Amino acid sequence: MFKKVIIAEDFEEFNLAVKQTLSDFDIVNFQHAKYCDDAFLKIRKAIQDNEPYDLLISDLSFKKDHREVKIGSGDELIQKVRELQPDIKIIAYSIEDKNARIKSLFEDSEINAFVLKGRNSIEELKKALNIISASDQKFISPEVASALQEKGNYEIDDVDIKILKYLSDGTSQDEIIEIFKSSDVKPNSKSAMEKRLSKLKDFFKANNTVHLVSITKDMGII
Amino acid sequence: MFKKVIIAEDFEEFNLAVKQTLSDFDIVNFQHAKYCDDAFLKIRKAIQDNEPYDLLISDLSFKKDHREVKIGSGDELIQKVRELQPDIKIIAYSIEDKNARIKSLFEDSEINAFVLKGRNSIEELKKALNIISASDQKFISPEVASALQEKGNYEIDDVDIKILKYLSDGTSQDEIIEIFKSSDVKPNSKSAMEKRLSKLKDFFKANNTVHLVSITKDMGII
DNA sequence: TTTCGGATTATGGATTTCCGTAAAATACTG
DNA sequence: CAGTATTTTACGGAAATCCATAATCCGAAA
User: Fold this and answer.
1) Residues in domain Response regulatory (chains A, B) (predicted)?
2) Is B208 within 7 A of strand C by CB distance?
């Protein structure tokens, strides 16, 4: 089982529950941070002191408040920590149930477990701890397990997302083209734009642009 | 202080924290429900048994799962409970920070307190308990207190919201008109529709329809 | 009843978006 | 290099939306 654990979580309710869970496993050496920045600093410090953490349990979304932060989301924190300390085990602990985001966590950041906050999350957290401490097996909450099986035929690239964001921001197609031209984004013709939009609408089964933006907003893509 | 409390909350982490808080106030007679339906039944039962609850602490959003439910959200639960037992005190306990929704809770459902889940929510929950148990004063978490001061010049009516919902659902303006005509919603001409949309865009400072839907989605109106 | 003000509806033209086709540019292959 | 495939760009007509103006309806007040 793990010896030294750090928790990145802004809500005290979840902090409390995680601490309780860790205690049940007789893990006493743990710390928590309410901001991603703090968590990252602690992890770096621990490495320097030659007493690294062997587990990070991190939330994904953190509330913004008065404080200025460098790392604003758990996704970023996880990414940075994975680079800094490749062998640390990571559990993402979140209410996020968007397939695309979960998939990317496993594939890009190589998290070891994803526990979905919900009616039985403490039980699942315990399962995750058991599994990933004993082996290199992954754990994912059953409610969202389908996220990984989903065929990753996401041909949606950065430009697509950029377009969607501009659209949802009230920019007209013509204006977006102008912006792309003046910032030398590769395809910047009216027709390329329209073709992309057409593909996107096809992909997301959207009837029109309004619908498309509505759908992608719901899916957490923009 | 309160004698008999019921909590409607699906996440066990929050349940745990609330129970802990109540214990700190020496409140021992409390129950919790993970589904709105259950909470409502318990409240009704308690009235019939002549031992009604004097406080409801309710979350607003509940995860959907396999189970079929009649009451799907805390907003509905609160509304129904307020009708059933007008003198019960109600605390909404949620991460919801959309002004429109909070305002409506105070004005339409006459909740007694709104506690925003966050980095210091337990402390705020305690404050809320103190204030509303001793008087008829309202409590609202400072981070969202501005929601109440907002000028309520919401001339946005049901039809507007219906239109926005249809739009975000991919329905074209013409199609919406057809729907309105066949279900005899009052204004159902092309121009009335366009005028309404124009007003909405004006009100929300939206550049176009896509922008409008995007904004109202973000505000939690649709 | 008449008049007024508002709300709804009608109309038409400007603008934007939609969608298919085709030309041009670029990449890839043998 | 020639030939093919893929991507990007160009163009044009159809459809939808945007916007201003004018006509109509309808209830309230004089």
Assistant:
1) 4-132
2) yes
pTM comes to: 0.79
Q: Who contacts A136 (Cβ-Cβ below 8 Å, separation ≥6)?
A: A112
Of B118, B170, B207, the CB nearest to A208: B170
Nearest to B137 by CA among B166, B159, B114, B117: B114
Nearest-neighbour CA in chain B from A91: distance (Å): 17
Q: What is the pLDDT of residue A101?
A: 84
C1' (C15) to CA (A98) span, angstroms: 37
Looking at chain B, which runs of residues are DSSP E strands? Answer: 5-8, 30-33, 55-58, 89-94, 113-116, 139-140
- How many C-beta atoms lie closer than 10 Å to residue A124's C-beta? 21
Measured distance CA(B98)–CA(B200) in Å, rounded: 18
CATH number of A5-151: 3.40.50.2300
Tell me how far apart the alpha carbons of residues A74 and A109 are, in angstroms, rounded to a whole number.
11
> B119 vs A208: CB contact, 8 Å cut-off?
no
Which of B13, B119, B206 lies closest to A17 in CB terms? Answer: B13
| DSSP assignments along B95-117, one per residue | S---HHHHHHHHHHS--SEEEE-
Are B136 and A29 in contact, with CB atoms under 8 Å apart?
A: no
Lowest mean pLDDT, pick from A131-135, B49-53, B158-162: B158-162
CB-CB under 8 Å, A13 with B214:
no
Nearest CA to B116 out of B146, B132, B138, B92 is that of B92
**Measured at the alpha carbon of residue B218, what is the angle toward residues A145 and B204, in degrees to the nearest 5?**
160
Question: Can you give the pLDDT at residue B153?
Answer: 52
Percent of chain B with pLDDT over 90: 62
Contacts of A172 in chain B (CB under 8 A): 207-208
Residues with CB under 7 A from strand D: A 186-192, 194-195, 208; B 172-174, 191, 194, 197-198, 201, 208-209
Nearest to residue B180, comparing CAs of B169, B192, B168? Answer: B192
> Is any atom of nucleic acid chain C found less than 7 Å from the CB of residue A168?
no
In chain A, where the domains are located: 5-151, 158-219
Q: In what order do the strands lie in the sheet with A55-58?
A: A30-33, A5-8, A55-58, A89-94, A113-116, A139-140
